[in-house]
Amino acid sequence: MDREQDKISYVSLSLDDHNVKTVAILLFESAPSLFELMFGRQNFDALSQLVARARNCFSYRYITVAESQGEVVGMVVLIPGDRLQENADEREVFPLQQRLWLKLIRRWFLRYVLKQDFPADSLYIGNLAVSPEYRNRGIGRQLLLRCMAEAERTGKSLFISVDVENLRAQKLYESLGFQVVEVKAIRGFGLRIGSRVLQLRDGS
Fold first, then answer.
1. pLDDT digit string (tens) for 32-74?
2. Residues paired with residue 178 on neighbouring β-strands, in sequence order
3. Average pLDDT estimate for 187-200
4. Contacts of 59 (CB under 8 A, 6+ apart)
5. CB < 8 Å & 24+ apart, contacts of 42-47
6. How far apart are the C-alpha atoms of 144 and 198, rounded to whole Å?
7. Are 89 and 134 in contact (CB under 8 A)?
8. How far is the C-alpha of 22 from the C-alpha of 71, rounded, in Å?
């Protein structure tokens, strides 16, 4: 592939210029098991609707995309700490039964495996994904570096979570200056499910 033609640019997600469903697919790939649990078979449609709205933690307002020749090939969600619990759009997107299911999942499962409360004056990298054919080209690292630059620009602390079994991703984050500050996990049926919370060290 011609590297000159395959130049990657990094921009804020635009509902006019970018394919929301492509972003939703990447978003799903960042945590497929979790999104299947939350939204079932309608996960792509649910995520597309949330991305296209402004009052939820997957909103286009918080997404930066990597694009090649106008095609989205990577994305990252960077959310202010005081917006993580924002979910007003769910009342418009989901029927009552689905909203009750989400409430149940958050109360009895997510709280034990995924940290959901961060300082109001912090930033949280909620989701990061790169298309399979564009991996191992440094795109994920560049997306992370942009999050780090925003944290430095605003003077805010920066957090990210990683699956407890994803040591490869953890090593990448640690190489950029993140360190583990908390582990939230449960054990059952011989499995360990949960996440490690990492914070960017001062001066990194």
1. 989 999 998 888 999 999 999 999 999 999 999 999 998 999 9
2. 200
3. 87
4. 50, 51, 53, 89
5. 46/93, 46/94
6. 13
7. no
8. 9
DSSP code at position 55: S
Could you state, in order of their start, the residue ranges of all structural domains in the chain?
A: 8-200
Give the full edge-to-edge strand order of the sheet including 122-130: 8-12, 63-68, 71-80, 122-130, 157-163, 191-200, 178-188
Instruction: Please state, in angstroms and rounded to a whole number, the distance separating the CA atoms of residues 101 and 48.
Output: 19
DSSP-derived secondary structure for 153-195:
HHT-EEEEEEETT-HHHHHHHHHTTEEEEEEEEEEETTEEEEE
For 31, the token pair is: 């945590």
CATH H-level, domain 8-200: superfamily? Gcn5-related N-acetyltransferase (GNAT) (3.40.630.30)
Where do we find the tokens 């769910």?
90
Task: Check: pTM over 0.90? Answer yes or no.
Answer: yes
Residue 4 binned pLDDT confidence (cut-offs 50, 70, 90): very low
Query: Angle CA(188)–CA(194)–CA(198) in degrees, nearest 5?
Result: 155
